[in-house]
Amino acid sequence: MLEPLIRKLAHFLPLPDSERDWLNSLVSRSDEFPPHADIVRQQEVLAGAFVISAGHACRYKILPDGGRQILDFMFPGDMSGLHSFLLRTTDHGILALGPTMIARLDRERLLAEIIDRPYVTLALWWSALQEEAILRERIAAIGRRDAYARVAHLLCEIFERLRLIGETLDHHYNLPVTQVELADALGMSEVHANRMMRRLQREGLIHADHRAIRLRDPEALKAAGEFDAGYLHLEGAPRAVLGRLPAEGRSCRGVGT
After folding, report:
1. Alpha-carbon gap, residue 12 to 102, rounded angstroms
2. Whether 39 contacts 33, CB under 8 Å
3. 84 within 8 A of 48, measured Cβ to Cβ
4. pLDDT digit of tens for each residue in the chain (257 aa)?
5. Pairing of strands 57-62, 93-96
């Protein structure tokens, strides 16, 4: 159930088998949601932590005038609710964008036992920091980039995030969002989002066939979106951090410097 999460975390830190097994043992049950169903409603009391195990979702806020702002997209391996024991209610909703399955975690065990799981602790910390960085990048994009750059940047970001969990093939991927959702995430109208997608196709940067996306010229697309993947922190854990961990697992996978 948690293989996408484990695959994602392993890009930062190699997890020993014992900690992978512990993560999987936390799954208490799985729930399925149809497209456009609320997984969590805004102002709802959260039941606990969960991980997207299949499908795609988004975090969103509904404004007083009924408008929707999508805050971030959630892909397999993304977690929500880890902090829920600190809050009375959630300040945003989470919506299934297509058929979506979540794995609910035993929050009491997670909180009680994670102190003895240093690899998982650090990897989840990295995942939370990456989530914050994505939100900061979105704020910068909406505030300072034009519509063309915003769309190009988000297409690059989605590719990198899906690549982490093995949902890309070369430079192809299935775009898990509609143009309405793209527009709601980037602060523009659906018409304008459609116009920017057509422009990117016309200029030979992408090819879009329904939701299938091919990055025809990845470097040009990155330039158009002013995209630098550095904010996703994909280079792996610093050796200074690994040096403070127990020896188990250090010899697994290459890490950053």
Report:
1. 23
2. yes
3. yes
4. 899 999 999 889 889 999 999 999 999 999 999 999 999 998 887 777 899 999 999 999 999 998 999 999 999 999 987 666 666 778 899 999 999 999 999 988 988 999 899 999 999 999 999 999 999 999 999 999 999 999 999 999 999 999 999 999 999 999 989 999 999 999 999 999 999 999 999 999 999 988 899 999 999 999 999 999 999 999 888 888 888 888 765 444 434 43
5. antiparallel
Decide if 75 contacts 126 (C-beta within 8 A). Answer: no
Using CB atoms within 10 A of its CB, is residue 224 exposed (0-12), middle (13-18) or buried (19+)? buried
| Matching residue, tokens 């948690």 | 2
Q: Which whole-number Å values give the CA distances from 117 to 19, 22, 23, 83, 255, in the listed order?
A: 7, 9, 10, 18, 19
Residue 211, SS3 per DSSP: coil
- Going by C-alpha positions, the residue among 91, 79, 8, 108 that lies closest to residue 45 is 91
- Rounded Cα–Cα distance for residues 190 and 184 (Å): 8
* Structural domains of the chain ordered from first start: 1-139 (2.60.120.10), 145-236 (1.10.10.10)
